[in-house]
Design goal:
Helices cover about 50% and strands about 10% of the residues. It contains 9 helices and 5 strands. The protein is globular and about 75 Å long. A 5-stranded parallel beta sheet has the order 2-1-3-4-5, with helices on both faces. The longest helix is centred in the N-terminal third of the chain and has 26 residues, at about 5-30.
Length: about 210
């Protein structure tokens, strides 16, 4: 075989490898976040008792901790006991704040009440859509949906991909069952909320750059 043919064959192989690597990067890279050019004026945290900060002393909930870290106010719209349906019913509270970015954490109470996962994620999708239609970015926070197996993990990840949100998976990962971080069976203490804030901080800062 002549040298020219060898070079041609190797050239084709190299191009094929480069193309395959490009496809892999496209498949596994996080999609562009929708509304990065948002002209909103506020940052809102929207959700249930974890957003409200149940179990933490004043100023040690993860929303307050994040506000201190980014040196910007964050409006806390967490309501203990809220399901995704409750969140959908009061979405106007978020939209009235003219948000630039919404930190969204709902779904834990749906699991505790044994509500269908399909309905949980339909509600979450509607919440995300309404926030995005108002021109804001969404930072979706995952929550565990199961004791032995996490039935929500893949669903949260799929929702983040399809709706082009930023995403932090299972914010309670490594906290549940550890007395160092939990104030009761499901709510973190000050140290636990600090762990949650540490997980969220780099993603939040990236969105605000």
């Amino acid at each position: 075989m002549s040298n020219s043919k060898k070079f041609l064959i190797w050239g084709v192989i190299i191009l094929a490898v480069i193309f395959l690597l490009y496809l892999l990067v496209q498949q596994f890279s996080q999609p562009e976040i929708k509304n990065r050019d948002s002209r909103g004026t506020s940052i809102v945290a929207f959700g249930d008792s974890l957003v409200q900060g149940v179990g933490a002393s004043a100023g040690h909930d993860f929303v307050s901790l994040l506000s201190t870290k980014i040196k910007q106010p964050i409006i806390n719209l967490g309501v203990s006991g809220n399901t995704t349906a409750d969140g959908l019913a009061r979405i106007n509270q978020v939209l009235e704040a003219k948000p630039k970015l919404v930190i969204l954490l709902l779904g834990g109470n749906d699991y505790l009440k044994r509500l269908p996962a399909s309905q949980t994620f339909q509600n979450l999708e509607q919440i995300v859509n309404q926030i995005q239609q108002a021109g804001a970015m969404v930072l979706l926070l995952g929550i565990r949906g199961g004791l032995l197996t996490d039935n929500y993990d893949d669903e949260f990840a799929a929702l983040a991909r399809s709706q082009q949100t930023a995403f932090v998976p299972n914010v309670l990962d490594g906290l549940l069952g550890d007395d160092r971080y939990i104030s009761d069976t499901i709510h973190p203490n000050n140290a636990g909320y600090q762990k949650i804030a540490d997980k969220i901080e780099p993603v939040l800062k990236d969105l605000l750059e």
